[in-house]
Every structure is written in C-alpha cells, then in structure tokens.
Amino acid sequence: MQYHRTRAQAEAYVRGQIQDAQAQGARLLIGCDFPFGYPRGFAHALTGRADARALWHYLQDKITDSDSNANNRFDVADAINARFGNGPFWGHPAGQTTPHVPARKTVDYSALPFAERRRIERAIPSAQPVWKLFTTGSVGSQALMGLPMIARMAAINGVSVWPFDDALSGVVLAEVYPSLLAKAVARHMAQGGAIKDAVQVQLLARAFLHLPPQKWADLLALPHPDAREEGWILGAGFAEVLEAAL
Q1: The whole model's pTM is what?
Q2: Which of 46, 111, 132, 176 has the smallest CB count inside 10 Å?
Q3: SS3 of 162, please?
Q4: CA 145/CA 151 separation, integer angstroms
Q5: What distance lies between CA 235 and its chain's CA centroid?
Q6: 114 phi and psi, to 5 degrees?
Q7: C-alpha separations of 57 from 17, 211, 225 in Å
C-alpha cells in the first residue's frame, strides 16, 4: 500500500507499474475509484460524438493540473454548464466564483439531453452521481481530474480499458467501487481496521487477485450496451463472488 500526495506522483507510479509489468510479461489490472464515463447522451451533446473517449480527450485538452494539485476543474465545469444553461454540474466551495455552477443541486435534469445518473449508478444507488463537484462523495471532481489521466494511459501501447475495448490486453484499466465489499469491510473494521479507505482498497485488490480464473469471464462480460458509452463498475453484481475470494 502506497500513498501519493499528488495526482502527478500517483500517475508516475502507475506508469512505472505498467512498464514493469510489460517488461516482465505480467498481467496487470489497474482499478480507479472514479467514473470512466457520463450518462448516455452527454458525450454527444458536448463533443458531437457518442463516445466516452471523445470526453476523455475533451477533458484532457481543457483540464490543467499542476504538480501541486492546483487545477481548473471548477472553471471547466462552469464553461460546460454555460453551454447547457442549467447544469449538469453542481457544488463548489464557499467563495468560489462559478456563475454557472450552483452551490447546491438545483439542476432540472429532465430539461437536459442526458440523465442525472448512469445506468450503473441507478443499479447501485449508493454511488454518487457524476455531476457532484464538492463535499462528501464528490465524484464529479474526481472524474474531471481522473479522466485526462485515463486518456493518457489508454494511449500507451498494450493498455486497454474495460468495458470500452472489445479485446483486453495484458494491462487493463477499469473503474472500481471499493464499497462493493461493504460487508467484508465492516467485519474487518470491527476487528481493528484503522483506515476505512485503506481497508476497502486492500480487500478489493485481494478479492480480484484471488478470484478463480473461471469467474473472470462473467465479470468482464459486457453488462449492458450502454456501458460502451457510460462505463461500468467492475464487479458490480458480483459482491458475493468477490467476498468468497477473500
């Protein structure tokens, strides 16, 4: 378990892991705890293409992120909201100048050409919507900052992204949600686990590592056609199978 103080340090570490795995001919699964896509229709409305990769590259072009984590995510969200008139992004710190991003959720998603939640977030209600930029569970900010990295990683030869790629290579990027193992995490914390986030990550990594090979075909099967655009959480619907692998 390693902790990196900045996104730049974390990305450099992951790149090193990819290089090492490819040099050794090893397989590598890289799980990222943020959405890899947005509700169906957003990519087309923003980029003209119904393709998650178009959004990754759009954000890669727009987002700036310094070595100290300083970034312009609220400005980018503000500019996107200005294009749609009302939303989709919401939430910002007190004093933040974002005329088109409300501090609270006041967005009428029925007036937009896309939904508030992805299909996977409707299946797992505890997962936060991708538009929330501030306060607890603000995965909207995580996605804005993380997807440019996914775009860069996906450009590395021999790296694929599930469930967007038909054929998976030896190095696979996938969206994960450590809260899938909530029961196992609760048991571990009751036995003296110190930091919940660390426990969640360790248990999910262990479950994937020890999952029987014959179960992987089920986990990697395309869960729904919308997942090609919206993304999906690896292991969703297989919590019991993953817990059994611990």
Answers
A1: 0.94
A2: 111
A3: strand
A4: 11
A5: 14
A6: -160, 160
A7: 23, 33, 22
What's the average model confidence in pLDDT over 151-178?
96
- Nearest 10 degrees: CA dihedral of 151, 153, 159, 161? -40
Which pLDDT value is given to residue 2?
82
120, two tokens: 């996977």
Q: Are 43 and 231 in contact (CB under 8 A)?
A: no
Amino acid 211 reads L
Contact in structure between 213 and 69 (CB atoms under 8 Å): no
CB distance 118 to 130 below 8 Å? yes
Amino acid letter, 241: V
User: Average model confidence (pLDDT) for the chain?
Assistant: 94
CB neighbourhood size of 197 (10 A): 10
C-alpha–C-alpha distance, residues 64 and 116, integer Å: 26
- The strand pair at 159-162 and 28-32 is best described as unpaired
